[in-house]
């Protein structure tokens, strides 16, 4: 049975995957995009997006992602829904298998599976994501101008997000389950010198409190006394890190100690020729929709250039 080999396959959607697909499709490469369990990525759980260029009045996250998907589809992108669990990178074309998928063969791959924000998994948290609970200060801080904010975390990311959020908040409380912070001294010092920041250390978050109007507070337990207390707040920012969605890539392409795909500086090239990475899956620093879209463009252009330099081969003869 003859097997079809795609010139390029994009694994994952969101701004990076959709942008890569748009560029590949416009180059007549007829890409296949494999959508995972959350097509559109993290922006599908975001309400107003006000920092993506071209939308002066803002746009809803799901609508932005749907528009990108339609644009990719318009130029000839094919979409399938499934979950890639295995990639054979030992030779080209690469073979992909997974849940809900038949065998897929690809001359090139673009990995854009993103990174998932870590949450606390306490009552009330997931019910209020996008309704007062967030994991992205630069995305959502503006909506809490003049309001009370709680930041949960004790590392550099939490300190950085807290300092950023004081531009908007009337007051801000950092909650951490230990009495010592993991953040570097310089980041701790910056936070402690900020007059808007107060501290609730050695507190374990128990529950996010909310009404139909939004988040109203965070119930915590004092680890010294065991007493429960409520910290009043209008917004809750969880800053305990991100986890790149790369478990299926271990042993296949080079990852850093945190699990992010390592790319050659200035490119989207991974350790395997013909495999590229775009978006949050390789970005520990910025993690913005616009930077993800930009790297999706880069990955498509890198992919196109790679294919131009590859030997033309009728793979169906080999794979039939």
TrEMBL record:
State a single Gene Ontology molecular function: thioredoxin-disulfide reductase (NADPH) activity
Co-factor binding details: Binds 1 FAD per subunit.
Q: Which Pfam families does the entry link to?
A: Pyr_redox_2
The record ties this protein, via PROSITE patterns, to: PYRIDINE_REDOX_2 (PS00573)
NCBIfam families registered for this protein in UniProt? TRX_reduct
State whether it acts alone or in a complex, and with which partners, per the record.
Homodimer.
Q: Please state which protein family the record places this protein in.
A: Belongs to the class-II pyridine nucleotide-disulfide oxidoreductase family.
Q: What is this protein called?
A: Thioredoxin reductase
Organism this protein belongs to: Paenibacillus thiaminolyticus (Bacillus thiaminolyticus)
